[in-house]
Write a structure and sequence with these properties.
The complex is a heterodimer. Chain A is mainly alpha-helical. In chain A, 75% of the residues lie in helices and 1% in strands. Chain A contains 15 helices and 2 strands. A two-stranded antiparallel ribbon of chain A has the order 1-2. In chain A, a hairpin with a 7-residue loop joins strand 1 and strand 2. By secondary structure, chain B is of the alpha+beta class. Chain B contains 9 helices and 20 strands. In chain B, helix 2 packs across helix 3, helix 2 packs parallel to helix 4 and helix 3 crosses helix 4. In chain B, 24% of the residues lie in helices and 34% in strands. The chains are: A mainly alpha, B alpha+beta. At the A-B interface, helix 10 and helix 11 of A face strand 6 and helix 2 of B.
Chain lengths: 308, 379
């Protein structure tokens, strides 16, 4: 650009005029374009997210019709929330604990895998990527049922461990460990892919620069590679923690009655308890608020500009 | 942080002894011997793929030579890791740490070496390259030229024995490049470190470096001061890559005192023996375009001349370039400075005589591959 301006000084200044203040008609038309592009998605969200959410909220503050189980009337009754928090506090605690553990284990498994895929895999990279994504071709429930069989009392894992006297409780299924393992397995790809993407995007020269500036392999990893992959780590932990906290399939299929999570309570209040609708709605809202608050604090603490 | 126990202090000239780097069957660097005197501004000049960047990366420790040794002074650095060498690199893409502020980027090296005053050193170096006002920003908030200065500061702050610059100005526009060339030279003089500058831009290499080594196919074709390289190229490749040359191939036919006489495509030309890279048999003869005069009349005295037809005239301001077709079919280029009040006023198709002083002529070995490559590059 500057070279052009040098060659033709006068034509450069006159040329800048029309480009600087574009015709107003065109400007006005362009201004609406972003909103037009937002419209279909916005409408979709309004009809299928905002309206049901408001509906859910009105249900969460309804009251039971006395003497008629399963009937409600419009009300502003926040006692449903109190009940949700007091009666189901253990399930809330378990949800957050299991999700946190699963996120931790998924991170511990995913980071080395993503690192190997990004820097060491060479021609195996695509095959590894496919292996990470392949489970998505099967239903989430089927995969969890498969784990139930793999971990079953007479299955290969439990019987081997039992034969070696390494399984104190005698079984794997119906334990909290099985639920956490199931959650870790099911959400692992959501941890691997963002971390892989951020590592793969990292400029190899920047990592070399760490070595050039007197940092050995481990120091370079700690001070350069890991910080550069933080956007991926944060995205991965959110993508794992949020759905894991609301999950009920793993606790249902792999855990005992004592390992139930909030998701299981909501499920049973909705479908199995007569008159449980307001409680289920209040539970859903409380879970959502809890997760939102935790995510907010998390991003404020570790977040990068890219995410906020 | 603990300092690296493996760090090797070393001072002195940088020496490469028969260094070879092979990637499979391809020899990127082929039996290279090189001495870079301490404190000099040295340029490795060559086209892409000539091995100059591989040479640089071997000095940095980012690649290990297949064979040969790399030394600074008497300290053998071969096989040591990049973080163990008193060598720092200014990367082509700057490679700044995106998650750190400019200040922390520059303080990175001193901190790793456990220097307590890392921050002060960083500030001081940022002042040297005149971007200290940007210290609190992140790299993404800086322009290309500013990032370039930070990359330089990040390497300079360590006061390395050898500072490597890998096409440092390649991504900048022409005006900024000129400005930074002058500044790089000033900084090098000020700090007195050995700078090794890799570039494919011959003008950049000649502007800044004390010594230029022209590389091609993993070897050094010719090495010397920029003026010497330009004045007397020793190979066809250098004649074409460093500036331009009018070349013609023929054979040596006679001697005339301290001159060699060669017949080049039907024209007899003279070359001082001292400037003759080849003294018998087949030769490639050459003259630089600005050493050739274009005349309307046959010249009266001295020099060599040949008649031709003007093919093209391009006015460039300070000079005019004429393309002249010689009877042999060769096309020569001639630069005439626009000094005269009355311009020569030549047009396409005019008959002209071109003439030059034999003291400017040179001969180099015949190299058809290099000549062909150069012809393709200009076509």
């Amino acid at each position: 650009m500057s070279a052009l301006a040098h060659v033709g000084g006068t034509s450069g200044t006159t040329g800048a005029g029309p480009a600087g203040d574009a015709p107003p008609q065109e400007r006005a038309g362009r201004r609406w374009l972003p909103y037009l592009l937002l419209l279909p998605g916005g409408l979709w969200l309004l009809v299928f997210f905002v309206v049901p959410l408001l509906q859910l909220f009105t249900v969460s503050i309804q009251s039971q019709f006395p003497g008629y189980p399963g009937y409600y009337y419009r009300d502003v009754n926040f006692s449903n929330y109190l009940r949700a928090l007091t009666d189901f506090a253990p399930q809330f605690g378990r949800s957050l604990l299991f999700a946190a553990l699963a996120t931790f284990f998924a991170f511990a498994l995913a980071y080395p895998l993503a690192y190997a895929m990004a820097f060491k895999a060479g021609r195996w990279r695509n095959i590894m990527l496919i292996a990470v994504i392949a489970p998505f071709f099967t239903s989430f429930i089927l995969r969890t049922v498969a784990w139930r069989q793999i971990l079953a009392d007479d299955g290969p894992v439990a019987s081997t461990l039992n034969a070696l006297h390494l399984l104190p409780g005698g079984r794997i299924t119906e334990t909290a460990a099985a639920v956490v393992a199931g959650l870790t397995y099911n959400f692992l790809p959501f941890m691997v892919l963002p971390i892989y993407a951020s590592l793969e995007r990292a400029d190899a020269r920047v990592i070399e620069a760490g070595g050039d500036l007197y940092a050995n392999g481990f120091t370079t990893f700690r001070t350069v590679t890991l910080p550069m992959s933080m956007p991926g780590v944060i995205a991965g932990t959110l993508l794992t923690f949020i759905p894991a906290a609301g999950d009920y399939v793993n606790a249902e299929l792999l855990g005992s009655d004592g390992d139930k999570m909030v998701g299981n309570v909501i499920d049973s209040q909705f479908f199995r308890v007569l008159g449980g609708f307001p409680t289920a709605a209040a539970l859903s809202f409380t879970l959502m608020a809890l997760i939102l608050a935790m995510v907010f604090v998390y991003i404020r603490r570790f977040g990068t500009e890219e995410l906020l | 942080m603990a300092t690296n126990s493996g760090f090797r202090e070393a001072t002195g000239d940088l020496r490469l002894e028969s260094v070879t780097k092979a990637f499979g069957d391809f020899r990127a660097v082929d039996d290279l011997d090189l001495v870079v005197p301490r404190g000099s501004f040295f340029a490795l000049l060559g086209p892409s793929g000539c091995g100059k960047t591989t040479t640089l990366r071997m000095v940095a420790g980012l690649e290990q030579p297949t064979s040969g040794r790399i030394l600074i002074g008497d300290t053998d650095l071969t096989g040591s890791r990049p973080y163990e060498r008193p060598v720092n690199t200014v990367f082509q893409s700057y490679a700044l740490f995106p998650h750190l502020t400019i200040r922390d980027n520059v303080a990175f090296g001193p901190k790793r070496r456990g220097q307590k005053d890392a921050m002060e050193r960083a500030e001081e170096t940022l002042r040297l390259v005149e971007v200290d006002h940007l210290a609190a920003r992140k790299p993404a908030q800086l322009s290309g030229g500013q990032q370039q200065r930070v990359a330089l500061a990040r390497a300079l702050v360590n006061r390395p024995e050898v500072l490597l610059l890998d096409e440092p100005l390649g991504a900048l526009d022409l005006k900024l490049r000129r400005q930074l060339q002058v500044e790089l030279k000033r900084i090098q003089t000020e700090v007195g470190l050995t700078f090794i500058h890799v570039t494919h831009d011959q003008e950049e290499a000649m502007t800044m470096a004390d010594t230029v080594a022209v590389m091609n196919h993993g070897r050094i074709e010719q090495m010397g001061a920029p003026a010497d390289l330009y004045d007397l190229p020793r190979t066809t490749f250098v004649a074409n890559f460093v500036g331009r040359s009018n070349l013609g191939t023929g054979r040596v036919v006679d001697r005339d005192g301290d001159h060699l006489v060669a017949e080049i495509q039907g024209t007899k030309v003279k070359v001082p023996l001292a400037r003759a890279g080849v003294t018998d048999g087949e030769v490639t003869f050459g003259v630089r375009p600005e050493k050739v005069r274009v005349l309307r009349q046959p010249p009266e005295t001295g020099g060599d001349d040949v008649k031709g037809i003007v093919l093209d005239v391009s006015f460039t301001g300070v000079a005019t370039e004429y393309l002249v077709r010689l009877p042999s079919g060769a096309v020569w280029s001639c630069y005439e400075q626009n000094l005269d009040v009355d311009p020569i006023d030549l047009h396409r198709g005019d008959d002209v005589w071109i003439s030059w002083n034999p003291a400017h002529a040179f001969t180099v070995p015949v190299d058809e591959a290099a000549a062909k490559a150069a012809a393709e590059a200009t076509a």
